[in-house]
Design a protein that fits this description.
Layout lengths: L8 H13 L3 H11 L1 H11 L4 E4 L4 E4 L1 E4 L4 H9 L4 E3 L11 H4 L6 E6 L13 H15 L6 E4 L6 H6 L2 H11 L5 E6 L14 H11 L4 E5 L6 H12 L3 E5 L5 H4 L3 H4 L8 H11 L5 E3 L5 H8 L8 H17 L17 H12 L4 H9 L24 H12 L1
Parallel strand pairs: 3-4, 3-10, 4-5, 5-6, 6-7, 7-8, 8-9, 9-10
Antiparallel strand pairs: 1-2
Bound molecules: iron/sulfur cluster (2 copies).
Length: 409
């Protein structure tokens, strides 16, 4: 580890304080006791330096695996030692401020403010120039970052018409840019195809093609994981031609539940870890610029991030093939193609996204809270099976919904 990049004890203690403020005191204290300061440096050493790639037409070089404002503080610090320099959802640092190691070397990092619709959720809420401006100004102040590099529209647009007609978010960005508070415009785009909660919802790729043609946004986060998805692959080729940046999110489809299943794990080639194989493939076998992947502690950080930019070996490919078959049986791709078929207007994609939060991210609290907010839940299903005719994975949707209802209620 380069001397200049090692963590001073004072910074480490500040990190622990930040963890207390973030409600992670137990985890941080346990980590400190068990592993100490050297564990962060040791983890970083085992991962090594993360390579960088150009993100979009500005040509900024960002680490191939990006960080996020909700990463555990010790993992974030290990990431910084590995050269992690892009921070998704940096506004999460509004409680307690951004990590000191980022603030004191601010220009070496790209920090993104993720902005939601207002007056409702991402379906019913509206884009509002004044409120977006007020939110970003407050986030700049509370995080202590001075400015955000990227302003991201969280969840994206509902359809192409909204991209073309509603410029509220873009205007908010332009005004904030003049104030020196943001520099680049980006979005994360979900699919609203067939959504019962949005009028004329369209797929993520249809909407993003229009965003790219519009030329105002520099890069996007899209849902992307293993298993062939021709529509998304064609979009990736298109974005490459247009020099538009693409970051993959929700990349570990179904892996959280796979690694808890001993009989499944026994099918994998010896010595291969699902997350490590996934990262090898995402960073060397795809056209992506960067990837977001969740890790909860230093052990997962080493296992997962050490796959960055490493060759996909025969045994990794074999593992990915096995994982693809398993995910095809069990884990929704969130494409939304089933939605419009449902006579009961059940938000199938949402419910199966919440199921992923619970079973793969083990975030039961978030999953059940979101599920409780739905006005139409999975128990409205009448088992007509029309949705299954549109599912590219032929998932047994009614059975999955019934299980999800029990899990999340
Ligand atoms: S099986 Fe259930 S979820 Fe699928 S279309 Fe019919 S009612 Fe909707
Ligand atoms: S259930 Fe199938 S069709 Fe519906 S969103 Fe998931 S993968 Fe797509």
């Amino acid at each position: 580890m380069a001397k200049g990049k090692s963590i001073r004890r004072r910074d480490f203690l500040q990190l622990s304080s930040a963890a207390v403020l973030a409600g992670l005191a137990g985890q941080a204290a346990a980590d400190e006791k068990q592993t100490g300061l050297s564990a962060v440096e040791e983890a970083a050493k085992r991962v090594g330096q993360l390579p960088r790639r150009k993100l979009g037409y500005s040509g900024r070089e960002v680490s191939i695996l990006i960080g996020a404002g909700d990463l555990p503080p010790l993992v974030a610090e290990a990431g910084i030692l590995c050269g992690m320099n892009y921070w998704h959802k940096a506004n999460r640092w509004m409680d307690g401020g951004a990590p000191e190691s980022i603030r004191k070397n601010r220009d070496a990092h790209c920090c993104q403010v993720c902005v939601d619709r207002v007056g409702g959720d991402h379906y019913q809420g509206r884009l509002d120039e004044e409120e977006h401006i007020a939110y970003v100004q407050e986030a700049v102040k509370k995080t202590g970052l001075g400015y955000f590099d990227d302003m991201q529209l969280h969840y994206g647009y509902h359809n192409v018409e909204e991209v073309q007609q509603n410029k509220s978010f873009v205007r908010a960005f332009e005004r904030l840019k003049k104030q020196g508070l943001v520099k680049h415009l980006c979005l994360s785009q979900h699919s609203y195809e067939g959504s019962p909660r949005v009028k004329n919802g369209q797929s993520a790729t249809e909407i993003l093609r229009s965003v790219i043609e519009d030329g105002l946004y520099e890069h996007a986060q899209i849902i992307y994981s293993f298993g062939a998805d021709p529509q998304v692959d064609r979009f990736l080729q298109f974005s490459r031609q247009k020099n538009f940046g693409v970051i993959a999110m929700k990349t570990a489809r179904g892996i959280g539940r796979m690694i808890q299943d001993q009989s499944f794990m026994e099918k994998l080639p010896a010595g291969v870890s699902p997350h490590n194989a996934l990262v090898r493939w995402l960073t060397t076998g795809t056209d992506l610029d960067a990837v977001v992947i969740r890790v909860k502690n230093l052990e997962e950080f080493v296992d997962t991030f050490s796959g960055a930019d490493k060759e996909v070996r025969t045994q990794d490919q074999r593992a990915i093939d096995i994982m693809t078959v398993e995910a095809g049986r069990s884990a929704c791709r969130l494409c939304g193609k089933c939605q419009s078929r449902c006579p009961q207007h059940i938000p199938i994609t949402d419910i199966l996204r919440f199921e992923r939060y619970a079973l793969d991210d083990h975030d039961w609290h978030k999953a059940s809270e979101l599920y409780a907010e739905l006005t139409t839940q999975a128990d409205s299903c009448i088992d007509c099976r029309s949705c299954m005719q549109s599912c590219p994975l032929s998932l047994r949707i009614p059975e999955k919904l019934a299980k999800a209802h029990i899990l999340l209620s």
